[in-house]
Amino acid sequence: MNTTRHGVWRRIQPVAAILAVVLLIGMPLWIVVVTAGKTQGEALNPDLSLPTTWQYAENFAAVWEQGRVPAAFFGSLLVMVPAVIGVLALGSLASWVLARRSSRRMAVLYALAISGIVLPPAVVTVVLLLRQLGLAGTAIGMIGVYMGMYMSTVIFFVTGFIRTIPMELEEAARVDGAGPLRVFGKIILPLLAPVLSTATILICLYVWNDVFYAFFVVGGRLDTLPLNLFQVASAGLYLENWHLIFAYVVLMSLPLLVVFIVAQRKIISGITSGAVK
Amino acid sequence: MTAQTTAIPPMPPAGPSASRRPTARTDHRHRASHPATFLIPAFLILGVFFFLPTIFNFVYALTDWSSFKSEIGFVGLQNIQDLISSGTLLSSLRITLVYAVLVAIFQNLFGLLLALLLERDTKINRFARVMFFIPVVMSALAAGYVFQAILKPDGAANAILSALSGQPVTIPWLGDTTWTLVVVALIHSWKWMGLSMLIYLAGLKTISEDVLEAARLDGASAWTMFRDIRFPLLAPALTFNVATALLGSMNGFDIVQATTGGGPARTTELLNIFIFRTFGQGLFAQATTMSLVLFVVVVALAFPVIRTLRKREEVL
Fold first, then answer.
1. How many structural domains does chain B have?
2. What part of A 82-141 touches B (C-beta under 8 Å)?
3. Domains of chain A by range and CATH?
4. Residue B168 contacts A where some CB pair is shorter than 8 Å
């Protein structure tokens, strides 16, 4: 009896899986894609119907102009790339020392370094601080804030990983007379590729999509993709202009979506291997 | 995150665990080869951009800092008293906690159900997993707008329900002072359930086939096997998922802002929505005070929750 029930499940499961995808993911995404191609009047109440006339070109051109997509795209890149490279480089360097040394002072420093995983960033006073530093509204200030926010994640990931790397590997290089920075750069850093790629994926996701912290730090001064989506949608300019909002959503999601589809196997295995020991 | 803007706490990577942790006695040997100066850049960034603003939080919550005057004066506990007496503090706090608990429940329930549904490594299941991960990759703000369009009074949801039931359905999904919070928590869970699913799938993979086979031979039903064997063995995945869901939703902003903006009648006004709104009005000290409240609540809740969940793992 047990086996027949098993057999029934095997036959139903693919149907259930496809049904779940269509209802939970397919329908919302379908509404986005068809509404982005409609005229304003047709898009007033977004639904599943196809547009009578497709006007992707007109809608994309409109948001490209009004949503300042090129500026926002480069603004997002300008902040994300240095923040991610910086936090990974500085975080890994510190993690190496935190993983290899074991005095009580190092344990305290490690606890302090990873506390940011749980603690929420002080989003209001960081604005005041940046003003005092002369970095208010600048890309450099935003990069610093993101690095501060994700430093703990990187140190936690990387320190745990380095502890699994045998000491002998670096000792051989040290005997050959290599200094610490050389040992780190030549021996340790290449071995960190798997953990660094997982951290890169997660931090890129968060930084690319962030609007809350960006609003406080660079709102109105620097264009980023989520910030511009938020501004145009809440300024009333796009109110009830669902065709334009969704055209913007499509444009904005495409870069990450393409990266994800191309590298999905690596991304998924990277995230899961890091999460469950 | 998106709404989940705080870094999710990852577990140490798989592999031979901590096999090479140096002992205190060998530490002096590492001093020259692993100089403490390497810590300086990372701690400088952490100190300036993370810890210093946090300390400022405690200071400026006691001032009348605002955009209306140039000087900043000390007012003591005035801000916190105002927020308590107006009822804003307690209502925002209650809404944030209810939201966090709802998200933790829904996101884990959906993630676990999806993981169980898509457990076998078939072509269809692999495709479905990728599809369910798309919302995780999307911007939470965009996800919020999508659901605002679907759930507005004359939106797609009510249209489909009307067609199915044969009579006009006009449910105010995003306009109800009681239930909209639940609806928004469901949207938040929809956005992140793909991540929980992946973590549960990884957890299910670690359960040895022998254990399951032995139970099957003993005649255990699928439900008994799940309740007594698989679910308890998913404890590490559950810890991770509950902790990330709680942290992500306590710091929630994007999805609520994009769907309701805190309404109707501020019944979905999370702490971060309040901070955003009062900051926009130039009431910087109030926003700082609420930011401090969020900090204290997360500290007070996160550590006990993580400890309790960890203890559950050790029992095994």
1. 1
2. 86-87, 90-91, 93-94, 96-98, 100-104, 106, 109, 112-113, 116-126, 128-129, 133
3. 15-62 (no CATH), 70-275 (1.10.3720.10)
4. no
